[in-house]
Amino acid sequence: MITRMERSLFASEAVVRVAQAALVVLLLGLSSAGVDAQEASSTDGTAASGGGQEFSPMAASPVTTTQLTDPITGQLFEAEVLLVTNGRGGYDSDGCPYSQGPQPRAYAIATSPYTLYSAPVESYGKGVPAKATGSLHQYLQQFADKEATSPLTPTRRYELAALAAEHLGEGPYAVGDYLLSAGWTVRDRIVGFLPAVQGASDAWEKLQGVLPDYRAVASPRGRTLASFDLARLSHRGGFGWERDALLAQLESFPDAGLGAFSKREEFRRLVRREHELLRAARSRFEEGLGMGLGSSEDRSYRRYLVGELSRRLGELERAGDELRAVANDTETSAEVLGVVRDILAVLQLQGATASALDLSWTNEAKEAP
Fold first, then answer.
1. Which terminus of the chain has fewer Cβ atoms in its 10 Å neighbourhood, N or C?
2. CA geometry: angle at 242 spanning 360 and 227, to 5°?
């Protein structure tokens, strides 16, 4: 049950120390020189878009292909798999881990081109019960027309895996896990690579730490890039009001020719899409809890997810209630309890109805040419 949590808890101290320097370069390089260097690393202004992995100095981690057998038809097909990964990107408070370079979750689910059956790559050898193959094939075919005209993104593969798991009766927790991971693949497109962010309180401390530099930026281009970078950091931390306030800052200075407003709308669209999937995942966890599924420790873990997803969805009062209940539950594991206490501390600081950040520009920034 805690396997997912243990995988994402947490980058080693050595990795953290190395990555801290990279975060300083990324988020504190807000002088004109810093902005020039940052923009040069992305010729299309990706730094302001919040999308992609262009921030990683690694070109790519090795990817290869493997042959899998569709358990419904027995046909062979090829799927990409990631051979090497790392934990240099840290983790988010809902358990989402990050790698420097391609994210492993983008390669974790394989989809058969023949039937749309989708499942973790390592599960393909287990097959599907013979009595279920016919009904599953028929069920998945209703999505065939849509998939024929749409790219089969990692997000969609997780959604198809959730549909297959539900049809096969794997239970609401399994379905919710697929939907949560689908949400993480959308978050990847928003936040890019921010090294060594270690949960909610660490994200908050980093955000507070760079604010003086942010508020001193004078040029519209620098403000644009800095606002997007801190909005990305806020989103990783689950600070919705702060994220939205930083995006709103783009209206307080002239356009810098980076396409900021269109990129802001794409940022917001992706946030809505991620939230759609987080709500769906939360609903499945609530369903499992309502049915009393799992051990006491497992139910405590699922309730923590309900609370944390509520926080990320902006429902801070409910989040606090759920997380305090988990903190007071004697069946809560030590790993989960540590994360929950960390989130509860941040709930006292982040904005509940408006941003808790002071984003006003300093006199030096206002007077700069």
1. C
2. 60
pLDDT single digits (tens) 255-268: 888 999 999 999 99
Which residue in this structure is represented by tokens 């209703």?
142
What digits encode the pLDDT tens for the residues 128-154?
Answer: 999 999 999 999 999 887 666 566 899
Rounded-to-integer distance, Cα 77 and Cα 67, Å: 6
CB 32 within 8 A of CB 256: no
Residue 314: closest CA among 221, 234, 257? 234
Question: What token pair was written down for 118?
Answer: 């989708």
Rounded CA gap, 27 and 8, in Å?
23
- C-alpha 277/C-alpha 33 separation (Å) is 39
Q: From CA 169, how far away is CA 238, in angstroms rounded?
A: 32
Beta strands in the chain (DSSP E): 63-69, 76-82, 90-91, 109-111, 118-120, 197-198
**pLDDT of 146:** 66
pLDDT for 220-256, tens place per residue?
A: 999 999 999 999 999 999 999 999 999 999 998 888 8
Q: Which two tokens stand for residue 192?
A: 């890019």
**CA neighbor of 111 nearest in space, from 154, 74, 143, 174:** 154
CA atoms within 13 A on the CB side of 88: 20
Cα–Cα distance for residue pair 8/121, rounded to 1 Å: 19
Tokens of residue 23, six digits:
């975060």
CA distance 74 to 314: 45
From its phi and psi, is residue 219 left (phi > 0), alpha (psi between -120 and 50) or beta? beta
Beta-carbon contacts of 308 under 8 Å, excluding residues fewer than 6 positions away, are: 93, 94, 238, 319, 323, 343
Backbone torsions φ then ψ of 68, nearest 5 degrees: -125, 160
Residue 48 has a pLDDT of 34
Q: Which parts of 196-333 fold into alpha helices (H)?
A: 200-215, 220-237, 240-248, 260-290, 296-312, 316-327
Do 275 and 313 meet the contact criterion of CB atoms below 8 Å apart?
A: yes
Half-sphere exposure of 15 (CA within 13 A, CB side): 18
In order, the DSSP letters of 4-35 are: HHHHHS---HHHHHHHHHHHHHHHH--SHHHH
| 197: CB partners within 8 A, 6+ apart | 23, 89, 90, 91, 92, 98, 203, 206, 233, 236, 237
Element (H, E) at 352: none
